């Protein structure tokens, strides 16, 4: 136990160290611990990831990218054990989806994909939906795509979560006169979400649309 306490202290010290090399060493150490001492990590998960998540916003780009790369690996290793810190991690990932740095953006997308592959899908949809209105640009499209990916699986478990979390995103996209991203992609992303919802909800989607403004209903009809 003494060794473990020392190891954790070393990890905490490295993750908040002044020098970026030390912080990177801390990130590498955490990955190592997840692989070799997962129980130690999961027992102290809230404190460890409280420090780790700060590095997702690291001012040093190399650290930030490494954190996101490592996070993708950690998600695949720890899976549901990350539930207590999932909100923190998702927030951190989403913040980097608009990064101008291609390496950071790619690492954030990879971490997002691993989240969908390994974390609880219902919780993820709730969190994506919760964060969605704060997003802009490419991040908005990236997350909308992920919500679309989750629709079928989440609907099978909790249809009400789809109605509460995915439908508002659809209405918001249909309502926007000018979308935050100028690109043909927006229409594609919107159409995919609409058809995914139509697939699982059937005629119920049209019924729900009846409470929306007429132009939203028209737009929806033109897409489906």
Describe the overall structure.
One of its GO terms (cellular component) is cytoplasmic microtubule. InterPro entries: ARM-like, ARM-type_fold. This is TGRM2 protein. With 224 residues, the chain is mostly helical. The protein folds into 2 domains: 1-119, Leucine-rich Repeat Variant (Alpha Horseshoe); 134-224. The protein is built from 13 helices and no strands. Helix 6 packs across helix 8 (121-132) and helix 8 (121-132) packs antiparallel against helix 9 (137-157). The protein is elongated. It starts with a helix and ends with a helix.
What would you give as the CATH superfamily of the largest domain?
A: Leucine-rich Repeat Variant
Beta-strand content: under 5%
- What do the pLDDT scores average to? 94
Residue share in helix: over 70%
Fill in the CATH topology of the largest domain: Leucine-rich Repeat Variant
Second CATH tier, the architecture of the largest domain: Alpha Horseshoe
Tally of domains? 2
Q: Please describe the biggest sheet, giving its number of strands, its sense, and whether it closes into a barrel.
A: none
Shape type = elongated
Order of helices and strands: HHHHHHHHHHHHH
Please give the count of helices: 13
CATH class of the largest domain: Mainly Alpha
Q: Roughly how many Å apart are the termini?
A: 60 Å
| Residue runs with pLDDT of under 50 for 5 or more positions | none
Could you tell me the number of beta strands?
A: 0
Radius of gyration, taken over Cα atoms and rounded to an integer in Å: 20 Å
């Amino acid at each position: 136990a003494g060794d473990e306490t020392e190891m954790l202290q070393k990890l905490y010290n490295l993750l908040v160290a002044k020098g970026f090399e030390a912080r990177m060493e801390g990130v590498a150490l955490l990955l190592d611990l997840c692989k070799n001492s997962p129980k130690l990590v999961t027992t102290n998960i809230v404190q460890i990831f409280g420090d780790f998540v700060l590095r997702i916003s690291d001012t040093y780009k190399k650290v930030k990218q490494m954190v996101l790369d490592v996070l993708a690996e950690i998600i695949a290793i720890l899976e549901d054990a990350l539930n207590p810190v999932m909100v923190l991690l998702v927030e951190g990932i989403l913040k980097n989806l608009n990064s101008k740095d291609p390496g950071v953006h790619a690492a954030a997308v990879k971490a997002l994909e691993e989240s969908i592959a390994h974390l609880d899908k219902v919780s993820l949809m709730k969190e994506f939906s919760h964060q969605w209105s704060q997003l802009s640009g490419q991040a908005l499209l990236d997350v909308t795509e992920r919500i679309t990916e989750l629709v079928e699986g989440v609907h099978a478990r909790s249809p009400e979560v789809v109605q509460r979390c995915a439908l508002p995103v659809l209405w918001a996209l249909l309502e926007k006169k000018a979308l935050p991203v100028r690109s043909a992609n927006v229409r594609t992303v919107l159409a995919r979400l609409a058809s995914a919802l139509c697939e699982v909800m059937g005629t119920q989607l049209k019924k729900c649309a009846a409470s929306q403004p007429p132009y939203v209903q028209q737009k929806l009809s033109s897409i489906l």
